[in-house]
Amino acid sequence: MSNVFGRIERATPPFAALAIAVVAVSTSAILVRFSAAPSIVKAFYRVLFTTLLLAPFAVARHRDAFSRLTIRDWLVAGAGGVALAIHFASWFESLEFTSVAASVTIVQSQVLFVAIGASWLLAEHVTRRTIAGMALALVGIATLSIGESITGAVAGPAPLYGNALALVGAVCAAGYVLAGRSLRQRIPLIPYVIVVYSVCAVVLFALVLADGAALTNYPASEWLLFVGMAIGPGIFGHTVLNWALAHLESSVVSVSLLGEPIGSALLALLLLGEVPSIVTVVGGAVILLGITVTARA
């Protein structure tokens, strides 16, 4: 099995893999919207099934990597898992209250918070261009959120609340990235994500129990959606994106992720009949421009 995986990796063109990954992550919000299950249940099963699908790969190629993890490694990876759980819980919930275009665009602002966190926690240098990009994106977020309320644009039952949840999701996604930055320099991808996803699944399971949501008695269509979230955005999306980082410049991968809000908005238009308002389009464009400037800086 290890040799098979190795041959697949060597035969895969990095840019082709990146294109597939961007398309895959663009389906995430649509699959969440298609599901009628509680948001926290969707998040739990997405992470659980992604972990179970990756586990055989971890055993086949990296079983010794887990024994080399230190206590500090486990704690840092665990912190990343908690942050990722809050990210999924808040972002999935945001899709219940605001538009797909707004939610996905705002959650992609995680790049800004990675830059802020890196300068604060890791003492990384922040250039004027980075600050300008962050300021531009924040103006876009304010334009999108406040503008929808002022103009009365129909973006969901509670767009301000939904956009705020998406922003929480962005901050927590940045925390997940920052927690794993040092570990990923020493630990292979699959063992790392198995630990993080496992912790994430445990936290989400606890949140499901606290919420009192049902874990069973869903129709077959719901289970197919749960598995689809794991295979599409989970395996072919984020896991392939992490693989691409080993073969392409990080700036290329970061900027390519700007295709997710565009792809999600188009899919929402075609499959959900969700037409973004002019305020959402203008605010989203400003956010994406700010993210581009920040990522390239």
From TrEMBL:
Q: Name one GO cellular component term.
A: membrane
Q: Which residues cross the membrane?
A: 12-31, 43-62, 74-92, 98-123, 135-154, 160-178, 190-211, 223-245, 252-272, 278-295
Domain EamA, first and last residues per copy: 18-145, 161-294
The record, for InterPro entries, names: EamA_dom, EmrE-like
Q: Does the keyword Transmembrane helix apply?
A: yes
Q: Name one Pfam family in it.
A: EamA
Alphabetized UniProt keyword annotations: Membrane, Transmembrane, Transmembrane helix
What is the name attached to this protein's record? Answer: EamA domain-containing protein
